[in-house]
Design goal:
Layout: E1 4-11, E2 28-31, H1 37-44, E3 48-56, H2 58-63, H3 65-77, E4 83-86, H4 93-110, E5 114-118, H5 123-128, E6 133-136, H6 144-159, H7 167-170, H8 187-199, E7 229-234, E8 238-240, E9 256-259, E10 271-273, H9 281-285, H10 293-301, E11 307-314, H11 322-338, E12 343-347
Helix pairs in contact: 1-6, 3-4
Length: about 350
């Protein structure tokens, strides 16, 4: 009996090629299982065969999204798989974005079922949960033994065209899709039952959970701007020429801190924008349109503000997940506080 063919995608680390120093390797594909593919094969059973493993470095994928995706699609197509499995990526941000990107592309271009796995706070989960099924995993590879069987089980149901049950039953991240079903009790009876449990302080599960939004109380106004130390934080993608830290043009997974010490204005000879969400022509000629160093220096000389910080903080806003944005803020806000920054000007595009 011919086995059902599966192609698996992993990054440089799980392929055993190397860590960050090998994150720039281009796409490749190897016959059979590699690394965690052995666990996937075991979970799938004898009816299935992992015929190939697609591999790409996380940095290469992030910096060459379209090229890497197209190359991998053609590599995967040659094996004619019935299902595609990516990861799991756990809480590795770049890996999660890569798994989500290639899984969605495989589904769209090859027309086969796909599944991946991520931790809830992985930026890839936030970006792709509405497009593909993402098994909820722990935050590290220590969860591999628990998560891989869940990926395999869902993949097998997809291949056989079986009904995919609720996120709670199948273990995938909620996709925001509402499905009609027949309940034994009518809605009014269920609502009263939940209300009674809530009034009694007993546990209950709502049928329509509301989204949760972080609410941050605004700080009081700066009382004395004439003695304030002001910094600029931007999501406009302004970086030194050459983009030394390889911040992505969209769906950023990193931010940069760059010096403006001794500078009167932002010069196009020193700075550029790598943002992929707006027409960059004017900003490439005049980076002060996004990081207004020239205007701040004038205010500094006029005594309207006390001091301009000798650096600015930057990332790309377009497509960047809430999870990554939150992580950036939690990280660089510590530096701002340590440096005695009194106020931040946040610029976008």
């Amino acid at each position: 009996m011919e086995k059902i063919k599966v192609v698996h995608y992993i990054n440089n680390f799980f392929a055993g090629i190397g860590g960050e120093e090998k994150a720039d390797i281009p796409p490749e594909i190897r016959p059979g299982t590699v690394g965690p593919g052995m666990a996937l094969q075991a979970a799938l059973g004898d009816e299935y065969e992992v015929v190939a493993t697609a591999i790409c470095g996380d940095s290469y994928f992030g910096e060459n999204l379209e090229k890497a995706t197209d190359e991998l699609i053609e590599m995967i197509r040659k094996y004619d798989p019935a299902v595609f499995v990516a990861g799991p990526a756990f809480n590795a941000g770049r890996y999660g974005v890569a798994c989500g990107t290639i899984a969605r592309a495989v589904e769209e271009k090859l027309g086969i079922p796909v599944v991946t796995g991520m931790y809830l706070e992985n930026p890839g989960a936030d970006m792709f949960k509405k497009d593909i099924h993402i098994i909820l995993t722990g935050d590290s590879a220590a969860d591999m033994r628990k998560s891989m069987p869940k990926l395999a089980a869902l993949a097998k149901k997809m291949v056989k065209g079986e009904e995919i049950l609720s996120p709670a039953e199948e273990g995938y991240i909620e996709r925001g899709i509402r499905v009609n079903y027949f309940a034994e009790e009518r809605g009014s009876a269920r609502a009263v039952e939940m209300l009674l449990k809530k009034m009694a302080g007993e546990p209950f599960v709502t049928e329509y959970p509301m989204p949760k939004f972080d609410r941050v109380a605004p700080n009081p106004a700066v009382k004395d701007m004439k003695h304030a130390k002001v910094a600029v934080v931007t999501s406009g993608g302004i970086v030194p020429q050459g983009n030394p830290d390889r911040i992505e043009s969209s769906s950023a997974t990193k931010y940069g801190v760059y010096s403006v010490e001794g500078m009167e204005r932002m010069s196009k000879d020193d700075f550029m924008t790598i943002h992929g969400g707006y027409d960059r022509a004017f900003v490439l000629e005049n980076p002060n349109l996004v990081v207004p160093l020239d205007a701040l220096r004038e205010l500094e000389k006029a005594g309207e503000i006390g001091e301009v910080a000798n650096y600015f903080i930057t990332t790309t806003g377009t497509g960047t997940s809430i999870g990554n944005a939150k992580r950036f803020g939690e990280s660089f806000s510590k530096k701002l506080l340590d440096d005695g920054i009194s106020a931040v000007i946040l610029t976008s595009t």
